Write the structure tokens for this entry.
Amino acid sequence: MEKIILFDLDGTLIDSTEAITSTFHHSFKELNYNFQGTDEDIKSLIGHPLDIMYQELGIDKEVVWDFVDSYKDRYRQISRQQTELLEFAKEAVELANTFARLSVVTTKTGLYSQELLEHMDIMKYFEHITGREHVEHPKPHPEPIHRTLDLMQIKQTCDIWMVGDTELDLIAAQSAGVNCVGVTCGYGKEDSLKEHTPFIVKNPLEAVKLIRDM
């Protein structure tokens, strides 16, 4: 049976923590918002869409898109310099490519995600990237997964897996009717991941090996 693996990005394949937190602080300063929280508050929300993150950090809904625009303007400029592949990520993708078809499902902007993966020389392994701008409802809604599988022209008889580091990834997979593996190398808490899948591993390479051997 053909295997399909959908990867999340932040906390699953890449570490862009510095890029994300520094860009949030930049937008707060640029738009004169006196942010009273910490980097940990920002990191705890990674995986959610930017507008949701900003609202959770105290930004009024009426002006949230001004902050999102400020964020995107700077993030694209600094993301390559402040983002790196997580340990074992490249090996995971290379191994997965030997037995499965691959795509990316992320709440990051798809365009920026593609640029990052090309810079890291692993975009060539992925058929599609579904980013925030491609869907109305981001994860944990199943729409991003459904859209990606449609683009890949996947039949339901395939063995389909989602690999992600937060409960958003796992809930989306469950809602879409596909299998999922949680990795503990990212931003999610192991206890919350265990609530949504029995398959919890340390990193994406372990996840790929598990899927290969299932």
User: Anything to note?
Assistant: The chain has ten helices and eight strands. The mean pLDDT is 95. The beta strands are 3-7, 14-15, 84-85, 100-105, 129-130, 159-164, 179-183, 200-201. Residues 64-78 form the longest helix (15 residues).
